[in-house]
Amino acid sequence: MGQMVRYEDDFEADMLEDTGAYYSRKASSWIEDDSCPDYMLKSEECLKKERDRVSHYLHSSSETKLLEKVQHELLVMYANRLLEKEHSGCRALLRDDKLEDLSRMYRLYCKIPRGLDPVANIFKQHITAEGTALVEQAEDAASNQASNAPGVQEQDLISKIIKLHNKYIVYVTRCFQNHTLFHKKVPHELLVMYANRLLEKEHSGCRALLRDDKLEDLSSKYWLYCKIPQGLDPVANIFKQHITAEGTALVEQAEDAASNQASNAPGVQEQVLIRKIIELHDKYMEYVTRCFQNHTLFHKALKEAFEVFCNKTVSGSSSAELLATFCDNILKKGGSEKLSDEAIEETLEKVVKLFAYISDKDLFAEFYRKKLARRLLFDRSANDDHERSILTKLKEQCGGQFTSKMEGMVTDLTLARENQASFEDYLRNNPAAHPGIDLTVTVLTTGFWPSYKSFDLNLPAEMVKCVEVFKGFYETETKHRKLTWIYSLGTCHINGKFEEKTIELIVSTYQAAVLLLFNASDRLSYSEIMAQLNLTHDDLVRLLHSLACAKYKILSKEPNTKTISQSDYFEFNSKFTDKLRRIKIPLPPVDERKKVVEDVDKDRRYAIDAAIVRIMKSRKVLGHQQLVSECVEQLSRMFKPDIKAIKKRMEDLITRDYLERDKDNPNLFRYLA
Amino acid sequence: MMRRSASKKAGQPNSTNPIPYSPSDLFRTASSKASSKEMERIDNLFYSYANRSSGMIDPEGIETLCFNMEVDHTDVRILMLAWKMKAEKQGYFTLEEWRRGLKALRADTVSKLRKALPELEKEVRRPSNFVDFYSYSFRYCLTEEKQKSIDIESICQLLDIVLGSQFRAQVDYFIEYLKIQSDYKVINMDQWMGVFRFCNEISFPDLSNYNPDLAWPLILDNFVEWMQAKQS
């Protein structure tokens, strides 16, 4: 300590000052007389000499200070004047391809903080100017040649640009030691320059070609741009924007059409939309394979475009619901799509492809399951094979867990048929047990099927016996299983003995329960019916409406208004008749959308909880943002979780002592075992 | 000659050897006599407020105490006193807690207790103590055994008492928000601590440095959104 003080104070300080003064004088005269290369040579020499000086007779601690001083006087003070020298400065060296001199320039300036910035700038400007000149040349030539050989000029230009690019890559490696400042600028500048001008050309640019379906031309564009590093990025971008625009337009069209049509044909527009989206997908997939050689960049562009508009809502229905409804229409008997088996298979295949773009996959699953249940339970499924086929395709995409419940549902039906056969055997063998009515029971495995509310409906006596008998049978088959009866899903065939003729009515169990009341009473009030059956107002109104105010008036209502009110009276309408011997009295289904959304939200809460716990259990300690992003990633296969929802679940988990916030860092969380 | 080492069995009083008195011992005995006198006074004061059957000072007793100290029973200083005592149950002081608090404050009469309040307040408001006091005040309000959250109404009152003087604007707006929102019916400790951190770190009312992507409790994210909607 303090040993160098004399050296530094009494000698070094003065030496540095004098050195500085000396070089300052030299520099001021050299800068006037010398060319940039010569000046740089001299500077390099000087620096070398000073280095030698230090090693010969100075203390090593002086080296840095001395060189800095020299650099400052020679290079920093005159940086501008040196680089900008008209005939020999940086620009001139680039122009005349003086790689040696440029290397020296790099060597000298790389040691100076921010010393390379002006050099890099000049480099960038130079390349930009050369590239722009090429583009302008090509444009002039093209306009002169009219539309004779439009592709030729472009091809020529592209190859010139590639040459330019390669030339300057050599500079970056040989002169500028691959320094990041220089490396970035080269491809970026070229790209910005030509991409915008060429691709955006109004009549022959990329957008125009897409618009006019010029697949051949797009193909040649692909071959051109693929040679340029990152050359395909702008092309893929335009492709993606084009598809997004077309898709969004389709959605908007459907939205408008749906709102105009009122409730005339609800759902028709939405079905048409799905068809159109499928067609759009087919069209642009062809582009990807034919024009863009299946390049991942374009697959990605297609995917991202579809993800944008495939997740929009149309007149209140989410895309998940629309797609599920579309499937329902194909798979059910008498659906709006009358197609051959092959056509159905093909369509299902395409539907599954679209499904990949939907972010709320769990919502689709729930809607699909609800509609599948209706198809299976009311015998509306057109073809078992198709049902299984789509489930297989969905399983391939999302894994077995996604489709396990649905597959269970389909299997349940097969088992139920077998079970029914056993039940019928049982009845044959126990004639005394027979309830007097033909009874078919479908036993469902609770976990597979959507949840249904079961009401304590007061069954008519005839039906009570049926239930008892079946229970007796079922207990012989299996113990330890509890049967819960879902009357809302049952169907009844009832003979209505009307004056003119007896007609067989196909009604739901609830409707049957209402009708059977009139076996005992001629006239019943709303409240009496309510009391006898023990239903909610909403359900009862629906039921009575279907029997007294709809197409087939099995009951007559007093007063004879169009809606049901709680003060109405009902009577069996013996005057009713129809040309058919058997009619189905439909019961309009309850809107399931609200319940589906509620159920899915509930499941999502559990899923988020599970994901958070899983992640924290393995990481033990994790920052908030990381936890959120990992959570989103884990769940992305089924849905896109709302960040707020994740935060809410985290809070809940903190309250339940699964997690705690770190005492010192509020953004860090800890797993509590 | 071997020295016989004086050995005493531990715990056995040796009645043959009188306890030697040194000057320091005299002093110690005098001060311990004084402190046991003080403790006696403290205990007596306790029993003057305590409920005969439970042996604790109950809410009624506390109200009387407050009346005598000329401090409102909802005053923050009573909460501070509870903190000093490390009282566990809201509305009640046990003998041990009472002793702990009054001994620390060196008060053995009501008047000395009253005079100790300003100093106590200063002590609590010191940044190193205030966080502890703040979290204590939440725990103090948990009345049931497994309770982890406090209802909105009580939280509003508590916020006003504990943070009102220091962060008037934030507290007023936040209370307004709590009353109109319906997402949360109760507040837990984590959210409670979050509010304090919010008052300390976030510039108000511009909220310019608030980042909802960080781990702020959701209720604060919602509060900020509500404030920003109000301000635009």
From TrEMBL, chain A:
<dbReference type="Pfam" id="PF26557">
    <property type="entry name" value="Cullin_AB"/>
</dbReference>
<keyword id="KW-1017">Isopeptide bond</keyword>
<dbReference type="InterPro" id="IPR059120">
    <property type="entry name" value="Cullin-like_AB"/>
</dbReference>
<keyword id="KW-0833">Ubl conjugation pathway</keyword>
<feature type="domain" description="Cullin family profile">
    <location>
        <begin position="318"/>
        <end position="548"/>
    </location>
</feature>
<dbReference type="Pfam" id="PF10557">
    <property type="entry name" value="Cullin_Nedd8"/>
</dbReference>
<dbReference type="GO" id="GO:0031625">
    <property type="term" value="F:ubiquitin protein ligase binding"/>
</dbReference>
<dbReference type="InterPro" id="IPR036317">
    <property type="entry name" value="Cullin_homology_sf"/>
</dbReference>
<keyword id="KW-0832">Ubl conjugation</keyword>
<comment type="similarity">
    <text>Belongs to the cullin family.</text>
</comment>
<dbReference type="InterPro" id="IPR016157">
    <property type="entry name" value="Cullin_CS"/>
</dbReference>
<dbReference type="InterPro" id="IPR016158">
    <property type="entry name" value="Cullin_homology"/>
</dbReference>
<dbReference type="InterPro" id="IPR036390">
    <property type="entry name" value="WH_DNA-bd_sf"/>
</dbReference>
<dbReference type="InterPro" id="IPR019559">
    <property type="entry name" value="Cullin_neddylation_domain"/>
</dbReference>
<protein>
    <submittedName>
        <fullName>Cullin-1 isoform X7</fullName>
    </submittedName>
</protein>
<dbReference type="GO" id="GO:0031461">
    <property type="term" value="C:cullin-RING ubiquitin ligase complex"/>
</dbReference>
<dbReference type="InterPro" id="IPR016159">
    <property type="entry name" value="Cullin_repeat-like_dom_sf"/>
</dbReference>
<dbReference type="Pfam" id="PF00888">
    <property type="entry name" value="Cullin"/>
</dbReference>
<dbReference type="InterPro" id="IPR036388">
    <property type="entry name" value="WH-like_DNA-bd_sf"/>
</dbReference>
<dbReference type="GO" id="GO:0009867">
    <property type="term" value="P:jasmonic acid mediated signaling pathway"/>
</dbReference>
<dbReference type="GO" id="GO:0006511">
    <property type="term" value="P:ubiquitin-dependent protein catabolic process"/>
</dbReference>
<dbReference type="InterPro" id="IPR045093">
    <property type="entry name" value="Cullin"/>
</dbReference>
TrEMBL record, chain B:
<dbReference type="GO" id="GO:0031624">
    <property type="term" value="F:ubiquitin conjugating enzyme binding"/>
</dbReference>
<dbReference type="InterPro" id="IPR005176">
    <property type="entry name" value="PONY_dom"/>
</dbReference>
<dbReference type="InterPro" id="IPR011992">
    <property type="entry name" value="EF-hand-dom_pair"/>
</dbReference>
<dbReference type="GO" id="GO:0045116">
    <property type="term" value="P:protein neddylation"/>
</dbReference>
<feature type="region of interest" description="Disordered">
    <location>
        <begin position="1"/>
        <end position="33"/>
    </location>
</feature>
<dbReference type="GO" id="GO:0032182">
    <property type="term" value="F:ubiquitin-like protein binding"/>
</dbReference>
<feature type="domain" description="DCUN1">
    <location>
        <begin position="37"/>
        <end position="228"/>
    </location>
</feature>
<dbReference type="InterPro" id="IPR014764">
    <property type="entry name" value="DCN-prot"/>
</dbReference>
<comment type="function">
    <text>Neddylation of cullins play an essential role in the regulation of SCF-type complexes activity.</text>
</comment>
<dbReference type="InterPro" id="IPR042460">
    <property type="entry name" value="DCN1-like_PONY"/>
</dbReference>
<protein>
    <recommendedName>
        <fullName>Defective in cullin neddylation protein</fullName>
    </recommendedName>
</protein>
<dbReference type="GO" id="GO:0000151">
    <property type="term" value="C:ubiquitin ligase complex"/>
</dbReference>
<dbReference type="GO" id="GO:0097602">
    <property type="term" value="F:cullin family protein binding"/>
</dbReference>
<dbReference type="Pfam" id="PF03556">
    <property type="entry name" value="Cullin_binding"/>
</dbReference>
